[in-house]
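2 proteins. here.
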Amino acid sequence: MDPLSNSFDRMSVKDGDEKNRMVKVKIPATELPLKSNQRSLVESTVKPQKHNSSTVSYEARTLVPPNQKASSSKENSNEESLDTHKPAALIEQPIVKALHLGMFEIGKPLGKGKFGRVYLARERKHGFICALKVLNKNELRQARVEKQVRREVEIQSNLRHPNILKLYSHFHDSRRIFLVLEFAGQGELYKHLRKARRFPEPRAAKYIAQMAEALRYLHRKHVIHRDIKPENILLGIHGEIKISDFGWSVHAPSNRRKTYCGTLDYLPPEMICPKTDDDSYDEKVDLWALGVLTYEFLVGEAPFEDSPVLTTRRIARGDMTVPAFVSTEAKDLIHKVSDFRLFQPYAEQ
């Protein structure tokens, strides 16, 4: 077995001879008919292979003890409880010994990334609707991002917040890695922003408030996302924010990192032109990106958008001009979130 497959087997634990258990999971009561053109898509793109129990594994973190209901777990946070008040259909999600591609009906493509594609999918036996992210192992090896993918799986599978996209499970075969993700019914926020050009302040305020709560949750768990931008934010079935794409995220209990990563337009001055000897930064890089995001929601474009050289210079100088049509209160929020000297995150209440 190759090193990449070995690493994914170590991240998962099989059930052995333990009997399957059922967990109540809230999902939209959505039907996913598999059309003929979608069947050809499945055959040509993600053709099911013969199941091999030695290479296909189930993410054990989603297991629930036999005598404990999912809703009463001690690890359920206040953030999770927000979901319990929303009307949704209850179905039983199987806790299976091993997942494989044949268990899913594959629907329309939802998106395409650098190393794979995302499809709408339905678990055949119980009708559980999800998104299936398919990654090509050879492409991951060639780009030398195996460690990045492993870290994404490890971090995202441990996160449970209504504004963070859930990673339910993962499995793999000889050529591909499959991530079973929550389905975000309204798609990419970026497309909504491009269509609207800019958001009205009440709508932007709702999104930013949800983003702030999700980031507070992440930072309390010592997770830094490091790539907050509209393309990495989805909208759920009720229009709620879902932070996704944890490829650049890191679990940093010391809260100090040195890696230069992310997307230039959303990077803070301390990453672009560090003024300290150790060149390190902390979770405030996500808060800077939140300020940039607030500006973009209200204005329709990122505040430092230019050529790479000019963008770097503008960020270093803090060259941000907020248009006059933005309210005084919104301007004040943008400047405070984007100024590390003024912002005191998560002070004790």
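next one coming up
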Amino acid sequence: MVANAQPAVWGDPAPDYSATVLSGDPVYLYTLIFVDSKITRHYSGNLTLIKQEIMRMIKESNTYFSQLNMRISVVDVLQTMRDDLSLYTFQTYHYNKLRNLPYHDFAALISYRYAGGLAYVDGMCSYRNNLICGFYPHNPEAMGAIFFHETAHLLGVAHDDKEQPLNVSNCICNDLTLAQEIYESEKYSPSAGCLKIPGFDHDCSAQHLANLLQRNRCLSKKPRSEKENVEDGYLDWSAFYDPALAMCGNGVVEGDEECDCGVEKFCNEINCIPETCKRKIPFYVILVFEQPFF
């Protein structure tokens, strides 16, 4: 089933999902991003700049992923040199190239000035692990919510009948007293709702996603190494990895990062600066002080 395109959510910050009941284990998501030829032309073929601007969107989406204990990493950003790909034809395009691609959990086609997104519902652990997300160069962050929304579709969140209640176990919004506290809080807005993913009609859709993640069996519960990827039959991509794709705040040590404890709100690692992913005290200093003196 394909989820229908959704209107963009412009400028709104990520809702507060702190009331979501989470499992103890994070889930690691590796995405391989493709851009259409219109994006390539807009940036005059400058792949360095393309990656930089695409990462602005992904970093915004991380403000959603991180709250639900999801670690999103970008494996690479590749150019399609095509502007005629639909979700269906992108699925075929991606499938035909799989042998020559690095490990990834899903592939995302970023489409120039498309005000929405499309994805296969529950396609993450199958050959339908594809989504399309729009992109606006004047404000790349604006589509971060849509990227998250479409990823939620891949993980199994569908657009249910808005006239029917969405029954989600362990959702705090089911408790009318607790839900009222959320509705009356300063952070509440009608579009944010109560644990609602932007673009979905029901409260508790964020909790629904968290519950689906607990049951997921194909996504990794720890960072993957290049050795594991090669052993699983994927190309060794280490020589092609661009440190510019490292995303400080996603909870994964990448590129030139010394540490990554996630976004500042969730960082509980004393010796890591969440804004820069650098150590407060270098390891070599700690090791010196730990050496016994005679």
